[in-house]
Amino acid sequence: MTEKIYEALGRASSLLEEKGLEPHAAQMLMEFITKKSRATLFADVREPLTEQQHEQFWAKATELLEGRPVQYVIGEESFYGYPFKVDNSVLIPRPETEELVYGALERGRKLFPNKLITVADIGTGSGAIAVSFKKEWPESSVTATDISEGALTIARHNAMTNGADIDFRQGDLTAPIAHEKWDIVLSNPPYIAHAEAELMSGAVLDHEPHNALFAEEDGLYFYRKLAEDLPALMNKSFLIAVEIGYLQGPAVHKLFQEAFPTALVETVKDINGKDRIIFCETCE
Ligand code: SAM
Ligand code: GLN
Fold first, then answer.
1. How far apart are alpha carbons 144 and 160 in whole angstroms?
2. pTM surpassing 0.90?
């Protein structure tokens, strides 16, 4: 006899909790294995799992108990309402980054009422920013770059499954986009200082790609390079949006204001009240 849904769920949640891991991961795994939404899962908790579901659930629960993030275990994360395949060659897209996409769309629509715009996403990872932007603004022409070929393979897959036509290019920072001018540049670059590693959770530090997380110069390296390169690459009317670490607001604000002396530069907080995005745009 296999366990019922609620029995397997209860047992896996307790085992995770005992190890100091996130118990909610068991529910996400169960939704994935049974292909049920959260609502139907709770309506059906007394159903027994099939042999195959039971076996799959506990094989993957073992990976959760080893500390692997649930998104890598099930191979998927949702971002801006769209499904994204993820594996350990890409950062798991974060909800804070959805706020960057939302803010860029809102500001972009005011700045570019003609809609036919060129957009670049630097360091696209899973393609989360580029794909969701393109889906929300279909008339835009979107280019996405990454230094990692592994990340680009996943991003291309996500663009295809979501039906987003995107030009992917491999290379270092602005190199792949340096021969054109852009209306909008978006980036969530690596920004964690190496010294912060000891404060990070094992789920992130032991499983996510370090070249997506860490940056030299106290985490500011990529912003310095972007502030240096982007002035030559932006059209007259432009918008730049970069995600930042919660302590980096003043430093990154200063870098962009110095690079674009006449632009409007704003630091925007995330839903948790932490500095999270710098917007830099043409000032009318
Ligand atoms: N944009 C995705 C997101 O928001 O979920 C991923 C962001 S992740 C923090 C940073 C990405 O930058 C990684 O995919 C990494 O491979 C890429 N990257 C690191 N160094 C780079 C470089 N020198 N040039 C271009 N991309 C780089
Ligand atoms: N927000 C991510 C984290 O805290 C870091 C992403 C990044 O470096 N851009 O794990």
1. 14
2. yes
